[in-house]
Amino acid sequence: MDHNQELFDRAQKVIPGGVNSPVRAFRSVGGAPRFIERAKGPYMWDAEGKSYIDYVCSWGPMILGHNNDDVVAAVKEAVERGISFGAATEAEIVIAEEIRKLVPAMEEVRLVSSGTEAGMSAIRLARGYTGRDKIVKFEGCYHGHSDSLLVKAGSGLLTFGNPSSSGVPASVTEHTLVLEYNNPQQLEEAFARYGDEIACVIVEAVAGNMNLVRATPEFIRTMRELCTKHGALLIVDEVMTGFRVALGGAQSLYGVTPDITMLGKVIGGGMPVAAFGARADIMQKVAPCGPVYQAGTLSGNPVAVACGMATLKQIQRPGFYDELSAQTSKLTAGLTEAAREAGVPFCADSVGGMFGIYFLDEKPRGFADVMKADQARFGRWFHEMLELGCYFAPSTFEAGFVSITHTDDVIAKTVEAAREAFAKVA
Ligand code: PMP
Question: N6-(pyridoxal phosphate)lysine occurs at which residues (predicted)?
Answer without folding.
Answer: 265
